[in-house]
Input
Amino acid sequence: MIFLCSFLFISLFSQSPCGLGYSFSSFTSGGGCHYTFTPIIPGGAPSIDYFEWEISSYGTYGRTCESGLEGNPLYYTFCFYGNHVVKMIIYFTGGGRCYVSQTIYVTCANALPCNPDVSNNSIPDPEVEITYIDPCSPFTGWHWAIRVPENQYNCEVFTYKIEYSECDGSGITCYELTPGTIYCVEAEYEEPITIMAYGNHCCLPANYTRMFSWTPVPGGLGLLDPKPYFSENCADRCTIWYDPDCEEQKQSFYYSAIYPTLSCFNKKDTKMNNLKTGNKKITSESTSIKNDLEILNKYSLSKVSIIDTYGKIIFNGKWSFNNQSLNGLKWPEGIGPGIYIVRFAESINNESVKVFKSE
Output
C-alpha cells in the first residue's frame, strides 16, 4: 500500500523532488575535469524508462549550461572549476517523473572559476593579433592577417566574430573566428574593422561582451593604429627580421557600456557573409575578367598560392592555367567550388586575382 501511494504521488506531481532513497553519486579520478554520475535507486521503486540530466552554474546568477543529457551513468566533462548544480530527472515507465538535485564542487584542472556573478573580475581579457600585409589591389583598402590566440585553459572562454567592409565594394562581411586560425581580411580604408568577443558559457556573466575596433588610416609607409607589420602573405605573418616576435604583441579587447551593432549578424536584409557562403558572383561589373585573364596568362606555369575565404592556403606550387576562360580553368586537384585569391610569387608588384570556381 505504501509502495502504491508512493507511485501515485510521483505520477500526479511529476515536477516534484524524488522521495527518500533516490540519489546519485559523483566520481572523478585524480581531480580531473571528467566526471561520472551514477543513479542510486531504492529497492522496490517503480520501473524506470530513462534518466535525463541538467548541468547549471551556481548562485543568484546561475543559469543552465546543458540540459536534455541522457545516460545511466552520465559521463560529463566540465570546463570551469567550482560549484555546479547537477540535476537528475527520472522518467518512470508508467508515466510521471521526479528529480534529484545536488550542488557539487568540481575540481577541474587548467580551468577558470565558475562564477556567473555580474561583478566577476576573474575573467581574462580576450585578445587578438593583427598584422598589416599590403594594400588591396586596386588601392581601395588594406589586406590584414587576423588571428585570435588560443587560450591556455581547458576550453575556449569566448566566441569571436568580425565585421568589416570589403575592399571590392561588395558590402559588409562578417563571420565567426576560430581561435588559432589565421584569417585573411581585405578591408576598405577608413571603414571600421570590429571584432567582438561573447561569453559563451554559463559560468560567465550573462550577456558578457568585449570589443576591439579600429579604423585604419594611411600613415607614412604603412598604417596608423594598429602598428603595421609587413609580410608576404597571411600564412607568413610576423616573420620580418626587425620584429620576429610580433605575434606576441596582442591587442586586448576592452569593456564599454555601448557596443556597435554587428549589422550582418542581426539584420536579415544585409549581405550576410557573402564570401564565407560562396554565394557572391564575380562578373564583369565587379571584377575585370579581361584583366584577370591577362594576369593569369602572364604568370602561367609560375609558382602561386591559392587562398580560400578563411585565409587558409589550400595550394602552394606551380599551376598551369591552360590559357582558358575563367570558367574553364584547369584547377589543381581537391579544390571545391568557391571564391579564391590567387597570389603570384614571381610578381614584383605582388599581383593577385580573385577567381570564382563554379563546380
